[in-house]
Amino acid sequence: MIRPAGFRGAAFGDASDGNGRDDAGVRDRISAELDISSRWASVRQVHGSVVVGVDRPGPAGDGDGLITDRPGLPLTIATADCVPVIIEGIRSVAVVHAGWRGVAAGVIGAGRDAMVAMGDTPRRAAIGPSIGPCCYEVGDEVCSAIGGASSSTTFGTTSVDLWAATEAQLDGLIVWRAERCTFTDTDYWSYRRDGTSNRQIAVAWVPEH
Fold first, then answer.
1. Cα–Cα distance between 87 and 67 in angstroms, integer?
2. Measuring CA to CA, which residue among 170, 80, 191 is closest to residue 127?
3. Parallel, antiparallel, or unpaired: how do β-strands 41-44 and 58-62 relate?
C-alpha cells in the first residue's frame, strides 16, 4: 500500500492487499492497517464525470468520484488500469476514478469544482498507480477525445498518457505521482493484461484529529 508523503488521509492499494471492492474482510484488514473506519462510502463507477457529495458510508449511487468534509468517513474507488486520483482541500477530500472517458469528460475538474462548491480550496492531489503511456495502446479516437496527451508504447504503437492528461486537469495544485504502470508491474491487477475482475482500491479520508 502506498501512502503519498505529505497527505493526511490518502492510500493506494495493490494486489497484495486483496480485492477491497468486493471483499468485506479485505476492507476490514485495510481499515485496521490505516486506522480508519471499515464503513466506507463508494459509488458504482460508470466512466463519466459525476462526483457525489456524501456524509455517510455505504453505496452512493452512480458516479466516478466522491467528496466529503465529514471527518472519519473513508471514500473509496476501485481500479485495474484506470487512474485513481485523491484531491485534498483544507477541510475536505475527494477521490476520483479517471479512465480515458472520464478524463475526456472532465471528471478531475468536476472533483475540483465540487470541492469549491463545498466552500473549500483544493490544495494538492495524488495520482495513483494506473496503466502507463508505455503500454496503453489506443486508437486515434481516444487521442482525439483526450487531446494533447498522445504518446508511444514501448513497442512502437500509438498510446495515450493518462498521467499527463490527469495532471493537466490538476493545474495549479501540488501534484504527487506514483508513476507505477499496472500493466507492466505485476504487483497490481490489470484488466488489460489479464482480463481480471479484481480491483485494487484507493481510499481517502479527513482525519478525525
1. 9
2. 170
3. parallel
Domains of the chain, earliest start first: 10-131+172-204 (3.60.140.10)
Q: Which of 100, 107, 170 is nearest to 137 (CA)?
A: 100
Q: How many residues does the chain have?
A: 209
**Residue 49 in grid coordinates:** 464525470
- CA distances to 2, 3, 28, 157, 193 from 33, rounded to whole Å, are 12, 11, 9, 41, 29
pLDDT at 150: 73
**Does the predicted model carry a pTM greater than 0.85?**
yes
Residue 172 DSSP code: T
Under DSSP, is residue 130 helix (H, G, I), strand (E, B) or coil? strand
Instruction: Tell me the pLDDT tens digit for each residue of 98-117.
Output: 988 999 999 999 999 999 99
Q: Which grid coordinates are listed for 150?
A: 498522445
